[in-house]
Amino acid sequence: MESYERHLITHAGHPIAAPLSDASVDALLAAALAHVPDGAGRLLDLGCGEGAWPLRALAARPGARAVGVDVNGAALAAAARAAEGAGVADRLTLHETSAAGFTSDQPFDAVLCVGATHAFGGLLQTLTSVRPHLAPGGCVVVGEGFWERPPTPAALAALDAVPEEFADLGTTVELVLEDGWAPVFGHTSSLAEWDDYEWHWTGSLTRWVLDHADHPAAAEALETATAHRAGWLGGYRGVLGFVTLVLRAAR
Question: What is the reported pTM?
């Protein structure tokens, strides 16, 4: 099964590809665009996938415009269809290119990179790369993992990670501050949000297998769902955290 097909299936019931509830997403978007009056604003989502964040922002702000960037053509096609269905296609522009390679001649009031900092090589590299995209007073919304507690061997194995890959929450925020950013809002995902995300991820893929038992990729998909669920429940559940920060440049 191609990775893009798996992504579309695993996120069918949870379009936000991160452990965030709908209420949390709305609060983060409101904080990111609080400085923009009259329901307007320009938003850029780097690593937008199926466009869940831009679509949510455009639905709530009738004067807003958004740009989504992703290397996944199938996900972008799904985003375009969703935008048509929501009646916001004329306000959403999609680019099939790398997040790190995207350029624009216009700045943005909010730049999002939630759960996609790997595209830039890490959190601080992401912040360096997105800074030129920001309009004066604009906000970055960045979502990043952190260690809730020291990672266990089981957690590291499930995530294919090393201890240095993430810091704890306090150190993560300190790194952002030292890099010249000021947090104006943030959300630390709860265990319930994590569970909801993971049950949707594994459950949607398992449901697809049951409904497509004759598909050539069914066995691979079932193995993926089983391994993912085991790695989450027996490895990183309660160990890996996720924080989404709304940042403004302090210098």
Answer: 0.95
